[in-house]
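Before relying on records like the one below, remember that each one covers exactly one chain. Contacts with other chains, cofactors or solvent are not represented anywhere in the record.
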Amino acid sequence: MAKINCIGILTSGGDAPGMNAAIRAITRSAIASNLKVKAIYRGYEGLITGDIKEFTTENVSNIIQRGGTILKTARCAEFQTPEGRAKAYENMKAEGIDALIVIGGNGSLNGARIFAEEFDVPCIGLPGTIDNDLNGTDSTIGYDTTLNTIVECVDKIRDTANSHERIFFVEVMGRDAGFLAQNSAIASGAEAAIIPEDSTHANQLEQFIGRGIRKSKNSSIVLVSESPKCGAMYYAERVRKEYPEYDVRVSILGHLQRGGSPSASDRILASRLGVGAIQALKEGQRNVMIGIRNDEVVYVPISNAIKSDKPVKKELIDVLGILSI
């Protein structure tokens, strides 16, 4: 295997609090190992357009506390084509980059996997996504901060819900994964969570109403995972039609969930995984995602990390059901 002298770093897909902490850790860990660092701006798009700059340790000073990503991020349709990836590879070679570290979610890591297979490039993935939906890691960078942001918002909404004796449907991010909705519902004392993983088992709205909602409570909060078909608006409309006696409101938290200074947990996680990425390259690892399991840094083949839906534990669903009586 060719010796690695220079690494490239990029952030791709949706931004997540803690990405900057990961960029800092990768950069400083690489420099400590006598490797050159090239920062690639705007994700895979920057690899195609050559938006690349050499980083020193000063470039990553004072960024651990900042949300978002100093490298910017972009969705890149061109990288999904063989021609786009060939351009990216030519730029990588021209810059002298021997290995690529990609911080992102499912789609970003899948792009790294395809790129690695086509051009025999060592690629390492870091799980940077607020959704917590990557396999092989207990937590993803950004998840803890987002959970705390949601809980803070729900605590404020609860004041209004109580004052007006209303049912509030609060829609949170997560796409096809219910981790944010389920765990923020437990943490905020919500009455229910409507998540994709539980939708096959029963009509969740009927369950929620049928548990005797509002018999003993003057307000209710339901966390709903975002969905184009059945998000918070869908369930609110159903309540208005099926249970017109209830006063219903909707709050869609949207992009405020992505922002903000990363929590201590996310800063520590990102720092450990960033150092782990350089360690993995030094050990000759290729095409793995660096994850955390039982508080140990682990290497997960990227194909395993992205392959299927990561399940929400049934125990969490049961806990919320018991505590929301």
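The chain is about 40% helix and 20% strand.
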